């Protein structure tokens, strides 16, 4: 059985929306808070994660966002990102934007459970904050991997704002890379009570 991992970049206050400032949110290009050797460490970890992952699970908008930024890029990391199997959750059944993608509609939770059961490696959810909460609320997430950037935005869509359930986490690792912090949490399912 594979592990379902939510992996994303977030501001210190949890915002995951519009990291490059190209979506018109007014949040600016907050990901630019990472620079120099910080971004080199980020790229090394993200590339390693992609190489080791079995598949991506994305929301429709995230699929389009990533396709616009990865298709046509050179290099081993880009090749892996573009050829890796992708599963795109969409209520509209709109064709996926990115290569090697299948659309998931209907019984999303059942299909994700089957995907996890059949996977031998990590199935990674990038950025898709609405999907992330839906999966977390239904005890399908095994791990959270977050790059926290040194910026507070005050507004914007946050990774866990839409979650309806309590979730308990266990810190697996935490590492500072210059001004960035990379944290990995195991999701304890079900969440302990009391």
UniProtKB/TrEMBL annotation:
Coiled-coil blocks: none
Limits of the Bacterial bifunctional deaminase-reductase C-terminal domain: 4-179
GO biological process: riboflavin biosynthetic process
One Pfam family linked to the record: RibD_C
Xref: InterPro entries: DHFR-like_dom_sf (IPR024072), RibDG_C (IPR002734), Riboflavin_Biosynth_HTPR (IPR050765)
Source taxon at top rank: Bacteria
Entry's Gene Ontology molecular function annotations: 5-amino-6-(5-phosphoribosylamino)uracil reductase activity
Protein name: Dihydrofolate reductase
Organism: Motilibacter peucedani
């Amino acid at each position: 059985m594979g592990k379902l991992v939510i992996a994303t970049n977030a501001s210190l206050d949890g915002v995951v929306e519009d990291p490059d400032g190209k979506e018109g949110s007014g949040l600016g290009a907050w990901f630019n808070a990472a620079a120099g050797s910080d971004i080199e460490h980020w790229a090394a970890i993200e590339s390693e994660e992609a190489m080791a992952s079995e598949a991506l699970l994305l929301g429709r908008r995230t699929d389009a966002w990533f396709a616009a930024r990865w298709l046509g890029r050179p290099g081993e990391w880009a090749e892996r990102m573009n050829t890796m199997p992708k599963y795109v959750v969409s209520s509209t059944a709109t064709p996926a934007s990115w290569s090697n993608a299948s659309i998931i509609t209907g019984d999303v939770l059942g299909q994700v459970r089957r995907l996890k059961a059949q996977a031998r490696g990590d199935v990674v959810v990038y950025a898709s904050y609405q999907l992330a909460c839906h999966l977390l609320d239904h005890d399908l997430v095994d791990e959270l991997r977050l790059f926290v950037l040194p910026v507070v935005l005050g507004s914007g869509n946050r990774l866990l704002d839409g979650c309806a359930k309590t979730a308990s986490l266990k810190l697996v690792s935490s590492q500072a890379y210059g001004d960035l912090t990379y944290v990995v949490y195991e999701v304890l399912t079900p969440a302990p009570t009391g």
